[in-house]
Amino acid sequence: MELRRAGEAAVVSARGDIDLSTLPQAVTALAEARATAGWLVIEEQQRAASGGYRFAVVRGPSRVQRLFEIAGLAGEEALFVDAPDQLAAGGGG
Question: Sign of the CA dihedral 10, 15, 18, 21?
């Protein structure tokens, strides 16, 4: 996990997979970001916005999904899908 500042925003970037073995580092990075910034950005969201494509996260097991709840992103329905094929149908959260 990489945490960097961009003005008042904290930008969190994952290098590789976020799974149960890397979850503690992700939780720590997101907690630090929340504590020190007015905005929390997952870097791929920015790339998607500037690149003209949609970024979505396939919901994981409840222990992994908890990471997004901690980050305050659980309510971002446009961010999450239940399965990749949901995107092909044009569906959202």
Answer: negative
Q: Which amino acid is at 61?
A: P
Joined together, the tokens standing for residue 25 give 């580092």
**Residue 86 gets which letter from DSSP?**
H
- Other residues' Cβ atoms within 10 Å of the Cβ of residue 65: 15
Give the contacts of 33 (CB within 8 A, at least 6 positions apart). 3, 10, 11, 12, 40, 71
Beta carbons of 6 and 38 less than 8 angstroms apart: no
Torsion of CA 25, 28, 31, 33, to 10 degrees: -70
User: What confidence score (pLDDT) does residue 86 get?
Assistant: 64
**Is the separation of the CB atoms in 5 and 11 below 8 Å?**
yes
* Percent of the chain scoring above 90 in pLDDT: 0
**Taking the domains of the chain in order of start, what are their residue ranges?**
2-88
Tokens of 70: 């901690």
Q: Looking up tokens 């990471």, which residue turns up?
A: 67
